Amino acid sequence: MPQFDRRVPEGDNRERLICAECGFVAYENPKIVVGSVVAHDGRVLLCRRAIEPRRGFWTLPAGYMENGETVAEGAAREAWEEAQVRIAIDGILAVFSISRLGQVQVIFRARFAADSADPPYAAGPESLEVGLFAWDDIPWPEIAFPSVHWALNAWRDLGDAPLGVPAGNPPDDARGTQRLGETAPGLTAPGLTAPGLTAL
Amino acid sequence: MPQFDRRVPEGDNRERLICAECGFVAYENPKIVVGSVVAHDGRVLLCRRAIEPRRGFWTLPAGYMENGETVAEGAAREAWEEAQVRIAIDGILAVFSISRLGQVQVIFRARFAADSADPPYAAGPESLEVGLFAWDDIPWPEIAFPSVHWALNAWRDLGDAPLGVPAGNPPDDARGTQRLGETAPGLTAPGLTAPGLTAL
To answer: Which value, to the nearest 10 degrees, does the dihedral of the CA atoms of residues B190, B193, B195, B198 take?
Structure first.
């Protein structure tokens, strides 16, 4: 493998990874996660992760956006891949910045495209299981990431109201620097107001 | 330089660039552009580009988000770098997907942080010049990108109203696949409703 040095390219103002052999600049930029809170009859769709990080914990259908798609197309693709659900997207529910990970999350509010009282869903290859949960039945202690709490709270706060300004990070983690579990055991993790949450 | 092959890694479902020597997977994901419509006294701040692409054309202060910052911090940094302006951010005005370029744009509504009738601004290293333009004085034929039109129109449509649901792509370019100039000469480019626009 070629060696990459970390230095400031000409005309730039910050260090980049530069190939010592050919001068190629390997820019590292934040990645976009697209996902959705998919609701049906007051219940929300959650997926239990079959992959690391946080294997076995519950998350929204969401994942890295791919080149060549729009944010909405990416969210729909993730709902299909992880929960085998075709979704109808309402609009943007939240935009979160997770500066710790170099990540921006665009989370949509959505419903099942199928007009059915009992719409189909199933675990895709990256999920162990998939379920529709009433608010009080959400497995709060087993939620995978802080931003899942944030998105669920934003969805709950909105109720049946039309979408408005997207939710952002909670004030006590405005830059997205905290992990679940960085608070003392028994305390509610910062920014997480969901009932029943215990710090992991 | 090592050779990168394009094939589907194990457990994935699409082709990636993979180093033939060591198996390193070089994921290519969309990049995030952060920027803002900075208004003062009904006029908007535009920068004439000193760099390619579209050198010499006018754009919003905007650029690629960097790791370790939030979307709002990135937009504020770009306003400083390109127009030497400290901004106060109101909130998200628009989220655009430019699937042609693998790009998501998060555009804020902002004002000058300085509480002054005549706030300072100046061309940064990536700008030839910077100006505040009344709507009718915007150099429409010399706008750099379709999304600058979209953002300015979203700003104009909103007027003094509070921010709501972010604007998205216009319906006639919902996936962000069109360039300026892909319509016949003399016609208004698709999705561009600004006055005086001629296709480039």
So the answer is: 0
The radius of gyration computed from the CA coordinates of chain A, to the nearest angstrom, equals 19
CA distance A108 to B166: 12
Cβ(B52)–Cβ(B92) below 8 Å: no
pTM comes to: 0.88
Q: Report which of A174, A176, A76, A173 is spatially closest to residue B175, judged by C-alpha positions.
A: A76
* Residue of chain A nearest B23, judged by CA positions: A1
User: Could you tell me which chain B residue has the CA closest to the CA of A93?
Assistant: B165
Mean pLDDT of B161-186: 83
The residues with which B168 forms a beta bridge, in sequence order, are: none
The interface predicted TM-score of the complex, written ipTM, equals 0.87
Give backbone dihedrals phi and psi of A198, rounded to 5 degrees, phi first. Answer: -120, 145
Q: Which two tokens stand for residue A70?
A: 């729009």
**Cβ-proximal residues to B117 (8 Å cutoff; 6+ apart), any chain:** B41
Chain B contact set for A106 (CB, 8 A): 95, 104
